[in-house]
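queue> pop job 88
queue> type: inverse folding (structure -> sequence)
queue> payload:
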């Protein structure tokens, strides 16, 4: 019984070592059409990300201007005029 268990364990260990050293076959080369499709997809994604970034920047600037204007107008007019003089 012990020999059988040792043989199974050794076989499992050998199989695990062989599997870790195995190489996968190289992927087939891409055709020009596939390369062009990937490039077009990447360019569209880049343009979409740039548009989203521009929108986010515009929202941030609008928020900054809105909140900065509120903070500056928070003082009563008579105190603001007194500080200018």
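queue> result:
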């Amino acid at each position: 019984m012990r020999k059988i268990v040792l043989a199974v364990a050794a076989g499992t260990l050998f199989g695990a070592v062989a599997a870790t050293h195995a190489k996968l076959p190289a992927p087939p080369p891409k055709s020009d059409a596939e390369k062009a499709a990937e490039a077009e997809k990447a360019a569209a994604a880049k343009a979409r990300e740039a548009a989203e970034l521009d929108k986010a920047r515009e929202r941030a600037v609008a928020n900054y201007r809105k909140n900065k204007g509120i903070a500056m107008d928070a003082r009563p007019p008579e105190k603001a005029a007194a500080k200018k003089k």
